[in-house]
Structure formats: structure tokens, C-alpha cells
Amino acid sequence: MVELTAQQLKEYDGTDPSKPIYVAIKARIFDVTAGKSFYGPGGDYSIFAGKDASRALAKMSKNADDVSPSLEGLSDKEIGVLADWEKKFEAKYPIVGTVV
Question: Could you tell me if 55 and 48 are in contact, meaning their C-beta atoms sit under 8 angstroms apart?
Fold first, then answer.
């Protein structure tokens, strides 16, 4: 398992084809390279690549300001939405490490 800082995680945003694409949820890093068409450059969800997207996923938002690990002020419903995203990611993508 890798341990990356938020700054190091940014290197895995799909712009370097020699590196995998990572998205973190609640500090757990998922290798989403298999979903390159979504998370890679130009993909619908490329804004999440190389970042902890917890808040944005909880809010179902593609606003850059929401792409953050902060769960502060989220409603119970949003926390539930995030839990659903987490289950989807766990079923689809390998967990490769954590954001420290």
C-alpha cells in the first residue's frame, strides 16, 4: 500500500500516461485507471483525478471548490450518498493506499 500526501496524489491525475490514475475517498486511494475514459484528461469526472473527491461525491458536484476531503457541514443524506459512492468504488476499483 502506498502513502501519498495530497500534493503527491496530484501526480496521478491522468496527465502522465506512464502513471496510474488515482481518486481518493475518505483518504483511501483507489486506482481508477480502468475507468480512464471517465477520469482521464477530458473525461466527465477528470476533475476528481489525483484528488480526494469525498466532498464533491457526497454533494454530487463537479464544482472544483467541492473537490475536497472535507466532510464538514455535510447533511446525513450527503454522508449516505458518499457511502454509496464508496461501495461502488470498492466493488469496481482496487484500493492502493491512503492519503496522509
Answer: no
